[in-house]
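Sample 3 of the quickstart, ligand zinc ion:
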Amino acid sequence: MKEKLQEIREKALSQITAAENLDTLNDIRVNILGKKGELTAILKSMKDVSPEDRPKVGQLVNDTRTVIEGKLTEAKKNFEKAALEKRLSFEKIDVTLPAKKNKLGHAHPNTSVLEEVEKIFVGMGYEVVEGPEIEKDYYNFEALNIPANHPAKDEQDTFYITPEILLRTQTSSVQAHEMEKGNLPIRMIAPGRVYRSDEVDATHSPSFHQIEGMVIDKNVTFADLKGTLETFAKELFGEDTKVKFRPHHFPFTEPSAEVDVSCFKCHGKGCRFCKGEGWIEILGCGMIHPNVLRMSGIDPEEYVGFAFGVGLERITLLKYEIDDMRLLYENDDRFLSQF
Ligand SMILES: [Zn+2]
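Result:
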């Protein structure tokens, strides 16, 4: 009996040592300590042992059981510990690794320039207003002294939605809306998107942006207009910028002028940038035509005003020295990330 127990004990211990996983351990437990296990069978055969030997044998069986159970528990713990360590090493975080950089967005060059222009005019006491992009023919043309048969209507290739409704071709349409409100005096700029059925090329797009400006008050003169635009040009392009007014014609202003600024690259000497001219055209302007005031219910005998219109893209291309307008709309990250 004693030898048998010794044999079971040695076999169990060597099996446990050789066990490769928890399942094997469990099988060993069942085979030895289970209901039909080898050690259980010995316990059952205790009835054949003589009464005086029983305590000694019983002690021996219990000792064997304790040793095997202890070894099984220890082995189980080792397996669990190894499994935990393996999992932790998988999930380990190296805190010395540099953090992943998040890409920060930034304003589109058009937006940056628009913000700069708005800041300049707000600094001079102007209000920034907006108007609808889908507009009545009246506000886009008629109220601006461009009657139905006026050649300017042909020049501007208009997207008509119905004969009376169109996509505005100029932000000047906001002027008429503001004048109709009748809150005089007015000092406003109106930036926004405009539409013309132009073919896309380096300097044209069917959709682009303008910034309209308008002042209506008593005793406003052409000198005020010149002073305003000179201040604007100097703030935008630099203190040494010179401004030149060339007579021009627009239906909604009289007199009208186009405004050139001295080339900020060559300072007037002439370079590739200004095509050797030394000057760069940036906007159109003039004193508001009395007809335009009258049509919106303002008495031209009492009030005068001036207006100007700037192409936002034109300013952006100049400021950032970009030579193709299409780059502004293609959303190519390689291009946009430079600004
Ligand atoms: Zn130049």
